[in-house]
Amino acid sequence: QKETPLANAAFWAARKGNLALLQLLLNSGRVDVDCKDSLGTTALMVASYYGHIDCVRELVLQGADINLQRESGATPLFFAAQQGHNDVVKFLFEFGASTEFKNKDGGTALLAACQYGHAKVVDTLLKHGANIHDQLYDGASAIFLAAQGGYLDVIRLLLSSGAKVNQPRQDGTAPLWIASQMGHSEVVRVMLLRGAERDAARDDGTTALLKAAIKGYNNVIEELLKFSPTLGLLKNGTSALHAAVLSGNVRTVALLLEAGADPCLRNKANELPAELTKNERILRLLRMKEKQRKS
Asked: What Pfam families does the record tag this protein with (predicted)?
């Protein structure tokens, strides 16, 4: 199973989708159909990654082992799912591909398809018994990875198939938090409507609203504010208003003040929001709100 010039030619044919050359090499009897490169990659993995269904079919019919794992743990099914080749995924299932293999990070074919936003592949995998509760070793779930990428169609599919909208990563990061941090306002809206915990805090005390305020993602903030998240002091000793003032985003500050954020609230360092900026427009907004509150 060592690499030889002929084996390398077979890998090249699988990569380029050159079926005639691949058949010639396999039929010569001088290339093992499961020969591996130095990382444990097989020709079937290569053909699956590049989506060459004719080469995949030829290799499988010539007896290639569908469930061999590369050193990283990835299988042909993993590569086809990661790259969004639904025809290859379906074909591999016909010949007994397993959804259960994990790579060194705990990644499965389903997690790879979710991470890269391949909704049709996710649907195929779920129909063939993939576990919707798969997680990377750091606790990231299928819905977490889809939320991170902003893949709304994948998220809807996962939610309708029983995914848990609030399943956090090991560091406490919820799917809503990561969607807010990445600025995916449509995903945030759908998750909130499907029961996402608006104030879920990470282990470091930060919430979705705080992250969006730091980044100035006003579309996300507007969605979160519809669900009345906490505007007061968080357990990490700051507020969304303090974060917005510090970031210098005038529109964010205005949104938070309109929603009822208190300009007289002090953070754990005993600072008022107004003490964190020299921006005149922000200071004017804060002063106006203070006057309104007093009157």
From this structure: Ank, Ank_2, Ank_4
